DNA sequence: ACCTGAACACCGTTCAAGT
DNA sequence: ACCTGAACACCGTTCAAGT
């Protein structure tokens, strides 16, 4: 039972493991103390209180999202590759990402990606305010899509499900459309399709045609 | 002090008011009972428990998002008008929308909007699987953008803020770009710009050019 | 059918006391 | 500098008892 001195890192590691497995609600100070084999109050000495413990976990997660290396030949391809990388990273830490989001740090977490996008948009020939708009639009698109996708996965069987709502006469005269909407989308395919479409529109030489 | 019989509606109204003002964390069963002037346990008789009380509030919110009437002359304009309407509705109920999201019902909440989009995409000449892709891409885009925007607003002063990170040499050779990224975006403008760009790309006659 | 208070098993947090 | 148990003020929930 002899345990070496408790450290802040040790507390954070145990807390992160708990959150990764069962989500933040499963992280109680008493449960964490039990896991670590110490008194509850020791944890307070090392990390302050529960709120700042969660803050520290979030901070860690933000730092872990640091390195983004685009790949591909054209700027458009490289932008899409950034999108893919982000998608994979996010899907590995669903609970922690949700916490980053709740704390309003989503934007900060994506700053490395934003810098990569700045690079690519510049390589595509965009400058100044128009380049900034393009970077932000793509960034919002990627992050937003991933949030929606996460939401879909977490959701229980929706009632009424899309399947029921998109019966044969939901889209009159287009049974193929009804059928397509009645079956669940392929998230990866739709993600790439969306990012490609937006990128294409934003990098297009002439911005005059406004919908 | 004579109070008329407590009803389920009354409980939901008081709970919704509490959540609208101070968020779900401020909704405690004991506090709600105090507000209503009853014993805590009476609430349990009417709504089950806290979890199903929150479920009921979410259900209400989903139903309130029912009516969507597009406006505008072209399909593209009408799609953008749907986006605008959704944005306004969402911004009026931030806490409740977050709860809908947490419960994984975001998609269901947007079904009326989806139906409007189906209509417009069809009017623009898209059919079958390609129409379904366009509807979903636009829907994900709108919902995702609004989630990200909400997140930005809720976030405290970000450290380090974008202002500090986008100093003059962040985008070498393009000071105008650096300046644009250092100042906060105009969310409404960026929203419209994004939706328009994606819509333009998706409704374009030739889908052959893939990034 | 509806309401009640008492009790239970949990929380996060503080604090004085230890070494 | 680090750890501890006891105590406080909260939770959500259950239950037997009232009308």
From TrEMBL, chains A, B:
UniProt xrefs under SUPFAM superfamilies: Homeodomain-like, Tetracyclin repressor-like, C-terminal domain
Protein's UniProt name: HTH tetR-type domain-containing protein
Source superkingdom: Bacteria
Sorted UniProt keywords: DNA-binding, Transcription, Transcription regulation
Xref: Pfam families: TetR_N
InterPro entries reported in the protein's UniProt record: Homeodomain-like_sf, HTH-type_TetR-like_transc_reg, HTH_TetR, Tet_transcr_reg_TetR-rel_C_sf
DNA-binding region ranges: 28-47
PROSITE patterns given in the database record: HTH_TETR_2
Occurrences of domain HTH tetR-type (ranges): 5-65
Residue numbers spanned by region Disordered: 154-184
């Amino acid at each position: 039972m002899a345990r070496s001195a408790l450290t802040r890192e040790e507390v954070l590691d145990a807390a992160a493991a708990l959150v990764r497995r069962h989500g933040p609600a499963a992280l109680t100070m008493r449960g964490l103390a039990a896991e670590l084999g110490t008194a509850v109050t020791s944890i307070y000495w090392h990390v302050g209180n529960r709120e700042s413990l969660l803050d520290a976990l979030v901070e860690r997660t933000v730092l872990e999202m640091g390195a983004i290396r685009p790949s591909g030949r054209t700027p458009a391809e490289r932008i899409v590759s950034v999108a893919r990388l982000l998608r994979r990273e996010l899907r590995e830490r669903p609970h922690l990402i949700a916490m980053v989001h709740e704390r309003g740090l989503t934007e900060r977490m994506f700053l490395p990606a934003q810098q990569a996008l700045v690079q690519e948009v510049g390589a595509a020939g965009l400058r100044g305010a128009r380049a900034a708009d393009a970077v932000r639009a793509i960034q919002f698109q990627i992050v937003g899509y991933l949030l929606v996708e996460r939401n879909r996965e977490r959701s229980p069987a929706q009632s009424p499900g899309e399947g029921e709502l998109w019966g044969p006469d939901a889209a009159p005269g287009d049974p193929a459309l009804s059928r397509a909407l009645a079956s669940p989308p392929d998230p990866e395919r739709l993600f790439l399709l969306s990012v490609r479409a937006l990128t294409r529109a934003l990098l297009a030489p002439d911005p005059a045609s406004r919908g």
